[in-house]
Amino acid sequence: MATEADEAKKPNFSFGVIADIQYANADNGYNDTRTKRRYYRNSLHLLRSAVMEWNEEPITPSFILQLGDVIDGCNSQLKSSKDALQVVIDEFTKCTSPMHHIWGNHEFYNFDRELLHKSALNSKHLGKMESSVKTQSNPDDHEAFYGYHFSPFPKFRFIITDSYDLSVLGRKYSSKKHHDSMEKLKTYNKNEDFNSSKGLTGLDKRFVAFNGGFSQEQLDWLNKVLTFSDNNREKVTIAAHVPIHPNSTNSQGVAWNYDEILSVLHAHTSVVCFLPGHDHDGGYHLDDHGIHHLTFEGVIETSPGSQAFGTMYVYNDRMILGGRGRIQDRILRYKQI
Ligand code: ZN
Fold first, then answer.
1. Residue 200 neighbours by CB under 8 Å, 6+ apart
2. Per CATH, is 4-333 categorized as 3.40.190.10?
3. DSSP state of 145
4. Can you tell me the distance from the alpha carbon of 180 to that of 86, in angstroms, rounded to the nearest whole number?
5. Contact predicate 332/292, CB 8 Å
6. Domain segments of the chain: what residues?
């Protein structure tokens, strides 16, 4: 029988997190700088065992956050994008917890936005919209997908964001967003290959095509959702593909307009945590506004004997991360307000 002390240890709820699976039915390779091994086939085995472990947890996770780059861009050259996506979706389907999907740069190397909206990677239907926070754009407008949000437990909210709303990836060449994004990129990056940061120094290295950012309309949307959360004294976790704090990643891995989104988050009391992927080495920083920026290590660069996923146990005053393999255990205490 559970004692009072056991009850006190019980979280309000838990959720799983996994990033950068980048599956491909391809032999092992390397990252662009040839410094890290990439295990394309094995990433599927790691996903499979992550799903099995989540399913076997004594308290079933309320949901899973899949932080993007679920299949590798090389599938596009191999003409295996749809097959590879189906293979990973089949693994997700075995998970008893609902899966929230975020789109990363590798999604856009394989598919355009229209196809992604129609695919199993569109988890927008899992966003529960309270009437007072109906701030979503027209769901049929593929050019304007900012994200969605949901509250899995009273006083807790999660916001799924698209960190490629401002991007040259996944946008039609004729669109205004593609034009504006290209102008921004070209202002800083003078290389023929926009994926190269050659000649760029410090944080300017972030102006590469495989990164993206947040449009003004999206930041306005985020501001509205966070105002609602502030007024309702909620604790908000935001998930995205690209990190937004330079101290939580390398200088090349941060969102183009990270400073603008940080200003929005810092104007609200409700934000406690920002969870991205994208930088396979991971990272962590507690910023001066008490927001935990926790970048998840990528499955793709995780050796076959290890693992890279976690379960977050959510309490009233903190979240406790139970990491597997390369993911460290952590206690993330909320700021006092
Ligand atoms: Zn990425």
1. 188, 189, 207
2. no
3. -
4. 33
5. yes
6. 4-333
Q: Measured between alpha carbons, how far is 195 from 89 in angstroms, rounded to an integer? A: 28
Residues in the chain, total: 337
Spacing, Cα 70 to ligand 1 middle (Å): 9
> Cα(270) to centroid of ligand 1, in Å?
27
54-104 residue pLDDT tens: 999 999 999 999 999 999 999 999 999 999 999 999 999 999 999 999 999
User: Which residues, in sequence order, are bridge partners of residue 312?
Assistant: 15, 321
- Give the distance (Å) from ligand 1 centre to CA of residue 152: 27
For the chain, the C-alpha Rg in angstroms (whole number) is 19
Asked whether the beta carbons of 153 and 135 are under 8 A apart, the reply is: no
The owner of tokens 């129609």 is 118
Q: Inform me whether the pLDDT recorded for 131 exceeds 50.
A: no
For strands 271-275 and 29-30, give the pairing.
unpaired
In three-state secondary structure terms, 191 is coil
Structure-token match 């590469």, residue found: 208
β-pair partners for 161: 147
- Measured in Å, residue 176 CA sits from the centre of ligand 1 at 23
Output the CA 139–ligand 1 centroid distance in Å: 25
**pLDDT exceeds 70 at position 311:** yes
Looking up tokens 């597997």 gives 324
Q: pTM for this one?
A: 0.93
Q: How far is the CA of 163 from the centre of ligand 1 (A)?
A: 10
Mean pLDDT of the chain: 92
